[in-house]
Specification:
8-stranded mixed beta sheet, Rossmann fold, alpha/beta
């Protein structure tokens, strides 16, 4: 499945490689969930039942909890067209309302808490905003200077097309007559909302058994969450430690120190768990028994001076000794393989 919102540093292009090295592990843990591309691209035939994800971004975690519990309501709040005035107003309501800090603390303290209105408006805003920093407190003045993403009527969920294969099933899934669409009629407000609801229902089905935690990454790396649940595959995609990138692109969970702490954890547990550690070339000095996989990202998000396009060639994933050994593109493992995906 495609991720429901754009996210910096997404790993959609290499999700299949990660699952080739992990295999059908009974337990999967992702401490830095972000856009969730790896989880959403897990092969459908896998039988692993335990999946735990975490992120320090309370609004991101709230979205996943809410869409799992009440996809209809989330779709209702997420289905409005892109509107610059609404983008600013909803950003203020989400991030600067009087109980915003209380909302964050409750998200971290109560694993069952969620709010559908916050979830719908947040994913709508993420899909409508150009670049990063939507509602970022330290960039409050930018809220009034940024423009919504208007080039293709929004990104992610905001540009979903109606699902025409099962028109009219379920509650509030009425869509325009496919014959009219074929003649070039405009997609109506009804068809757009129906398409988003269909997508939310699919997300709900996929994440039905996923445990969504909100807080520090280390909370989901203890034996109770990992090895006690069986052979574990752990995907580690922390904020990169490189000092020549925009240190704000990851928001609340950004710290160059985190990457080094994560590396030490990965090395310590690489023989008992199947671990994938993401980073830039030269960022970490890993043991010789870790495989390094080089790939090229789309790039362009982390810097607006051209460095983002240059950095996309520096993407690396280190796989722990416990990972499956497979031949990628008929090349020998334990070497750096270059994968270029446009």
């Amino acid at each position: 499945m495609k991720t429901p919102y754009p996210w910096f540093g997404g790993k959609t292009l290499v999700a299949d490689i990660v699952w080739e090295r992990f295999g059908d592990v009974p337990n999967y843990v992702e401490p830095f969930f972000g856009g969730g591309a790896v989880l959403l691209n897990r092969p459908a035939w896998h039988t692993g039942k335990v999946e735990t994800v975490n992120d320090i971004n309370a609004w991101l975690c709230n979205f996943w909890r809410a869409v799992n519990a009440d996809p209809d309501a989330v779709a209702h709040y997420a289905s409005d067209p892109v509107n610059e005035v609404d983008l600013h107003a909803r950003g203020d309501w989400l991030f600067y309302r009087p109980d915003a800090l209380e909302f964050v603390e409750r998200m971290k303290a109560d694993p069952e808490y969620y709010d559908v209105k916050s979830a719908g408006w947040w994913v709508w805003g993420q899909c409508s905003w150009i670049g990063g920093g939507w509602g970022r407190e330290e960039k409050r003045t930018d809220v009034w200077r940024q423009l919504p993403h208007l080039g293709d009527a929004g990104q992610g969920v905001s540009r979903k097309l109606p699902h025409l294969g099962d028109a009219g099933q379920g509650v509030n899934r009425m869509i325009q007559n496919p014959e009219n669409l074929a003649r070039g009629d405009d997609i109506t407000d009804t068809t757009r909302k129906a398409a988003i609801l269909q997508y939310m229902l699919e997300l709900c089905k996929r994440t039905a058994c996923v445990r969504v935690c909100c807080g520090d990454w280390a909370r989901v790396t203890t034996p109770a969450v990992t090895t006690n649940c069986g052979l574990t595959g752990m995907f580690l995609d922390p904020p990169y430690a490189s000092t020549d990138r925009d240190v704000n692109v990851y928001g609340d969970n950004d710290s160059t120190k985190i990457a080094h702490d994560v590396r030490e954890y990965a090395i310590a547990h690489g023989h008992e768990m199947r671990i994938a550690l993401c980073c830039y070339e030269g960022e970490h000095d890993m043991p010789d028994d870790w495989d390094c996989y080089a790939w090229k990202a789309n790039g362009g998000y982390s810097r607006n001076d051209g460095r983002g396009l240059e950095n996309r060639h520096r993407e690396r994933i280190y796989f722990s000794p416990a990972c499956l050994q497979v031949d990628l593109f008929s090349e020998t493992q334990n070497t750096t393989n270059e994968r270029e995906t446009e």
